[in-house]
Design brief:
membrane; two-stranded antiparallel ribbon; 63% helix; mainly alpha
Length: 161
């Protein structure tokens, strides 16, 4: 028979493995199985394995009862309600987001129109505003004529045939 020091497996470790893995040494880690079989020949460690086998047998006999049909129906019913509520909230939030995007686009378009087009009260019938004509003062061709100036378009206009 081997002694504890020779096997590398202490009695405390043997007891811990029996509690963790049960009374069948074949379920234990492969590295210690041969050493455990040799140690199991001792009466006190054989009793540890017998106790672990009794616990294994009790656990094998334990069976969980199936849930009552009323409980299963209630769980399914409540799960369906939660899902429907989440779906309704998701749809409402998507609709609110689309409404917000539409309003933001309308506001941006209105602001662009207000900036780009002066209001009619500031525009005269001939297109003049408080800042002058809306059209450019001189065409590009007029600037090429002698005597034309962006500040004084009159000399260019007088020379036209």
């Amino acid at each position: 028979m081997m002694r504890e020091g020779e096997t590398g497996l202490s009695e405390a470790r043997f007891r811990a493995l029996a509690q963790a893995y049960g009374g069948e040494i074949a379920r234990w880690p492969g590295a210690v199985q041969a050493q455990a079989r040799a140690m199991a020949e001792r009466a006190e460690l054989s009793a540890v394995l017998a106790e672990a086998r009794a616990v294994d047998a009790a656990l094998d006999r334990f069976a969980l009862a199936p849930p009552a049909p009323a409980l299963a129906a209630r769980i399914l019913r409540e799960t369906g309600r939660g899902h429907a509520l989440r779906l309704a909230i998701r749809r409402a939030l998507i609709g609110a987001g689309l409404l917000g995007v539409g309003l933001a686009g309308g506001l941006a378009g209105a602001a662009a129109v207000m900036i780009a087009v002066p209001p009619p009260a500031l525009t005269g019938e001939d297109g003049t505003t408080v800042f002058g004509m809306l059209a450019p003062d001189l065409a590009a061709a007029d600037l090429n004529r002698p005597g034309a100036s962006p500040r004084d378009p009159a000399p260019a206009m007088e020379r036209e045939p």
